[in-house]
Amino acid sequence: MSDDSAKKRPPADDDRNLVVVDDDFANADAEDRLWLFWERNKTLIVRGTSLVILGILAAIGHHFWQQARREEVGAEYAACQDEAARRAFAARHAGDPLAAVALAEVGDDLKRAGKLAEAAKAYDEAAVAAGKAGEAPAVRALALRARLYAGLTRTELGDKGAEAAVAAVADEPSAPETLRGLAMLSLANLAVARGDSAEAAKWLNAMDRRLRPDNVWQQDKAFLVRSEPSLTAAPAAK
């Protein structure tokens, strides 16, 4: 990148909602615009996590814990404080929804610790455990969350085939809107990062068609469009 482009870098504490694209970047070359996009979106692209999504797991876990709190299994789950305890709990209570919650928590902890390969495997285990726990809507949501996070985690590892797993959640009509929105937004971000504006536009248009106008990802979607000028004129991929 040129010395001039280095001068264009925003300060480390730059607030993305205050300045989206300055006049210099309106005419920047593709390399500079890609760098700017990456600097302002790398958290979402790389981590693929959100307090909103973490809240889904907490709500699901609380739901099943409430159901089981008068039973020994509920107290046993609540006592689990580390990976070993959660894995042991899941092994003892295969088929119980809380087993899947425990394994998803293992995946979250490993992901936060930067152990991405291990986290992806834990999410796979959580999805399998949820599949053994029945077809209740909350269990189904837990399985979809585990599948989505397994896919997002593997995209961080550079697994190109992982996007198919993310797309499967984006295209799943029964998935909660929050999960579908994150899947579509993540796919759009990944497409922009590799310079595929048409693919990005496809997923952004899908968000408009499939999600409510006031969905929790709407502001992030609008920011992505503003920060990448090529999206305003890009035809959506078929």
Which key features would you list for this structure?
13 helices, disordered N terminus, single chain, 238 residues, mainly alpha
Shape: elongated
Order of helices and strands: HHHHHHHHHHHHH
Percent helix, as a range, is: 55-70%
Number of domains: 2
Total beta-strand segments: 0
Cα radius of gyration in angstroms: 20 Å
Strand content: under 5%
Q: Could you report the average pLDDT, rounded to the nearest whole number?
A: 78
Summing up helix and strand content along with how strands pair, one would put the structural category as mainly alpha
Number of continuous helical runs? 13
Span between termini: 33 Å
Low-pLDDT runs: 1-38, 44-52
Biggest sheet descriptor = none
Structure write-up:
The model is unreliable at 1-38 and 44-52 (pLDDT under 50). This protein has helices at 3-7, 23-26, 30-47, 51-68, 72-78, 83-92, 97-112, 116-131, 137-156, 162-170, 177-193, 197-210, 218-227. The two termini are 33 Å apart. The chain is elongated and about 60 Å long. It is built from 13 helices and no strands. By secondary structure, it is mainly α. α10 crosses α11 (177-193). The chain has 2 domains: 48-161, no CATH class; 176-238, no CATH class.
Topology:
Blueprint: H1 3-7, H2 23-26, H3 30-47, H4 51-68, H5 72-78, H6 83-92, H7 97-112, H8 116-131, H9 137-156, H10 162-170, H11 177-193, H12 197-210, H13 218-227
Summarize the structure.
This protein has helices at residues 3-7, 23-26, 30-47, 51-68, 72-78, 83-92, 97-112, 116-131, 137-156, 162-170, 177-193, 197-210, 218-227.
